[in-house]
Amino acid sequence: MNENIMSNVTATIAAENANQTAEVAASAPVDEQHSLKNPIAAVRKSAHAAALIQEAFRARSFRQRQLTKSRTDVSEVRSEDLVARRSLKRVQKFAHYEDYLHVAAALKIQQNYRGWKGRKDYLKIRDRIVKIQAHVRGHQVRKNYKKVLWSVGILEKVILLWRRRGTGLRGFRVEKPTEDASSEVKKYDDYEFLSVSRKQKFAGVEKALARVQSMARQPEAREQYMRLISNFEKLEMTDGKNQASYQNESSNQQVIDEILRSLNEGQRSTSTMSSN
């Protein structure tokens, strides 16, 4: 580009000089041309040489200015590039830092959520286990309560039948009525005795309790009680789950009969011991 500019400048200067010389030659006469030919040629050469030197100097100075300008432009471009690169790096670092913050926050939220979810599931499972345990324990307690209630009912029937048959507790003797009084005394029926005993039940609870306690304090009575429990457990083991109601009643009656038999034997033994 610089060489094209310099060639254009030199061409314009040479054209102007040629025009000037042509005009001078056309205006001057022939004689004057011959007389002035040599000095004009020398001046023309010197002027042309000066013009060439000036053009070369101008071209060199122009080239120097262009080089310095291009260098400054390059340096400015480089500085701008460096600034842009630094700013880009800062932006990238800031973007990476923001991404890091987002990732850290997401991990923290996930950890907290997983902990909360785990605690919630654990509490649900624990509540269900506690409910199942409560149901099982309640079922076991009700089952044992039914057994105890059944045994208490049997013992109550045994005691009532024992008293009804005339074999009293320790120290209790049935007075034999005389022949004259026996005709006047009215025999009570079993159901009448049960009705009377039910009416007198609340009034004689303390008395019966004292009698039972006095009987339980004796070693013979304890042995009888242990025999009753062993017989009851044996009969309970032999009973099946699919027995009918009449079989249960018969087994209960057998238990009651055996208990009465053992109590009668104990009463006889105590009476013999007291007589001796």
UniProtKB/TrEMBL annotation:
Annotated GO CC locations: nucleus
SMART domains named among the record's database cross-references: IQ (SM00015)
Localization per Swiss-Prot or TrEMBL: Nucleus
Cited InterPro entries: IQ_motif_EF-hand-BS, P-loop_NTPase
Pfam family, any one: IQ
Keyword Calcium in record: yes
Domain of life: Eukaryota
Keywords associated with the record: Activator, ANK repeat, Calcium, Calmodulin-binding, DNA-binding, Nucleus, Repeat, Transcription, Transcription regulation
A GO BP entry: regulation of transcription by RNA polymerase II
GO molecular function: calmodulin binding; double-stranded DNA binding; transcription coregulator activity
Family: Belongs to the CAMTA family.
Protein name (Swiss-Prot/TrEMBL): Calmodulin-binding domain-containing protein
Species assigned in the record: Malus domestica
